[in-house]
Design brief:
153 residues; 0% strand; oxidoreductase activity; Fatty acid hydroxylase domain-containing protein; transmembrane helix
C-alpha cells in the first residue's frame, strides 16, 4: 500500500506540472491529450519526457523510499500498467477488473475521474483530476473536479 501511495503522489505532481508549465505542456504532455476519446492504447500515446515524469520518476522514487520486496515491486508495476489501461478505457470495468486493480480501496479514483480529466483538461493551465490512483490528492490540493471525481463507476 505504501508503494502505491508514494508512487501516486509522485505521479500526481509529475502530471500536474506538465499541465502547469507551458513548455512541458506544449512540447510533451499535449500529445497525450490530442486523442479526443481516451482508450487503453492512448496510455502509450506519450513521449519520453511524459513517460519519465509520470512513470519512471514516481516508480523510482517510491521504490527507493519504500524499498519493496522484488515480488512486490513487480506486482506494483503490473498494477500500474493495468490500471492505466483501465482508467483510459472509458468503460465501467467488470467487478473482477475492479478487484484486480484495487478499486475497492478508500479514496480510489474511478474511470470517471480520469475521463473527466481528459474531457476538461486538454489545455495548459489549471486542470482537474490529475491523480491516477487516489483522488485524495486532487481533493487536498484543490484540483478535484466536482463532476464524478470520486463516484464509483
Amino acid at each position: 500500500f505504501a508503494l502505491l501511495l508514494v508512487g501516486d503522489f509522485g505521479l500526481y505532481w509529475g502530471h500536474r506540472v506538465q499541465h502547469m508549465v507551458p513548455f512541458l505542456w506544449k512540447n510533451f504532455h499535449s500529445l497525450h491529450h490530442t486523442l479526443d476519446t481516451p482508450s487503453p492504447v492512448s496510455t502509450l500515446y506519450i513521449n519520453e519526457v511524459d513517460a519519465f515524469l509520470q512513470a519512471v520518476l514516481p516508480i523510482l522514487v517510491s521504490s527507493l523510499v519504500v524499498l519493496p520486496h522484488p515480488v512486490t515491486y513487480y506486482v506494483y508495476i503490473a498494477l500500474r500498467l493495468s490500471d492505466n489501461a483501465v482508467n483510459h478505457s472509458g468503460l465501467k470495468p467488470h467487478f473482477l477488473v475492479d478487484l484486480l486493480t484495487l478499486k475497492f480501496l478508500p479514496f480510489r479514483a474511478s474511470v470517471g475521474h480520469h475521463d473527466s480529466h481528459h474531457k476538461y483538461s486538454g489545455y495548459t493551465g489549471p486542470a482537474k483530476n490529475y491523480a491516477e490512483y487516489f483522488w485524495i490528492w486532487d481533493y487536498l490540493f484543490g484540483t478535484m473536479s466536482t463532476a464524478g471525481a470520486h463516484k464509483k463507476d
